[in-house]
């Protein structure tokens, strides 16, 4: 540690006359915001710093308030992803008519397999796609009674889409078909090494009992590390859709498993 000596030079004291606050003469430094006048610029600067910058900062902070964390909880309760209220949200709600469903299927095929070729498999035509072709040739009966609980996953997915067409508009229904088609592709890709009958895919010959178990792997496929949005889906929306699909299957006895969210967001 370095020590330094203090000089003890004699100081000459000077008597300074203090000015009164009420004294006006000599106060040439005026504040443009409140018109107060000061004798020196440093005094004016300190005034601005203390009185006006603080107020300006507070005013800047005012504006659109931060979203209350409770609002997310309220919204989840209002548009609960585990039941039909999920489709009551403004950008989702509506109805896709029988005549519109097939055009929605065409749009999904073009987007996934023709325009960008962003899906996992290659199909030259919609007729080659075992799921979308089957869905397009379905009678789209939204009032049909529940199908057999041991039906194939493809038929369960088609039944889900038919039922949901009555609750969401055409634009969102296209997103729903696209999401389920990608989910199906991921499931079949995971099970590609399993012994399957006659080159059939997993979802063509197996029931939906194990489908919820593939949810996390699908989300990891859809959102690799560092990706928050993919295929026009956000991660939060995708988690909600997975819940909706899996809870619907659980409620209709297609699976005995249901999803519990745990530090997933």
- Report the mean per-residue pLDDT as an integer: 81
Q: Overall 3D geometry? A: elongated
Give the helix level as a range of percent.
40-55%
Order of helices and strands: EEHHHHHHHHEEH
Strand order of the largest sheet: 1-2
From the N-terminal CA to the C-terminal CA, the straight-line distance is 53 Å
Number of strands: 4
**Structural class estimated from helices and strands:** mainly alpha
Molecular structure report:
The chain has 265 residues and is mainly alpha-helical. It has a domain of 165 residues. It is built from 9 helices and 4 strands, in the order E-E-H-H-H-H-H-H-H-H-E-E-H. Strand 3 and strand 4 form a beta hairpin. Helix 3 packs across helix 6 and helix 5 runs antiparallel to helix 6. The chain starts with 28 loop residues before the first strand and ends in a 14-residue tail after the last helix.
């Amino acid at each position: 540690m370095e020590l330094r000596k203090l000089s003890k030079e004699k100081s000459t004291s000077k008597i300074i006359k203090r000015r009164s606050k009420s004294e006006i003469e000599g106060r040439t430094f005026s504040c443009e915001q409140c018109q107060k006048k000061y004798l020196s610029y440093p005094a004016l600067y300190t005034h601005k710093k203390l009185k006006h910058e603080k107020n300006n900062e507070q005013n800047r902070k005012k504006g659109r308030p931060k979203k209350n964390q409770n609002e997310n909880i309220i919204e989840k309760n209002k548009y609960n992803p585990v039941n039909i209220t999920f489709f009551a949200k403004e950008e989702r709600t509506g109805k896709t008519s029988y005549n519109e469903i097939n055009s929605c299927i065409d749009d999904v095929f073009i987007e996934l397999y023709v325009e960008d070729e962003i899906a996992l498999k290659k199909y030259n035509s919609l007729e080659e796609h075992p799921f979308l072709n089957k869905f397009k040739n379905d009678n789209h009966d939204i009032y049909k009674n529940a199908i057999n609980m041991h039906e194939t996953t493809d038929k369960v997915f088609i039944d889900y889409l038919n039922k949901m067409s009555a609750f969401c508009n055409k634009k969102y229904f296209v997103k729903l078909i696209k999401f389920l088609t990608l989910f199906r592709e991921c499931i079949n890709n995971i099970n590609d090494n399993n012994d399957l009958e006659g080159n059939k895919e997993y979802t063509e010959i197996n029931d939906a009992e194990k489908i919820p178990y593939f949810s996390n792997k699908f989300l990891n496929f859809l959102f690799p590390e560092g990706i928050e949005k993919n295929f026009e889906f956000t991660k939060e929306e995708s988690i909600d859709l997975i819940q909706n699909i899996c809870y619907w299957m659980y409620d209709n006895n297609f699976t005995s498993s249901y999803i519990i969210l745990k530090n997933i967001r």
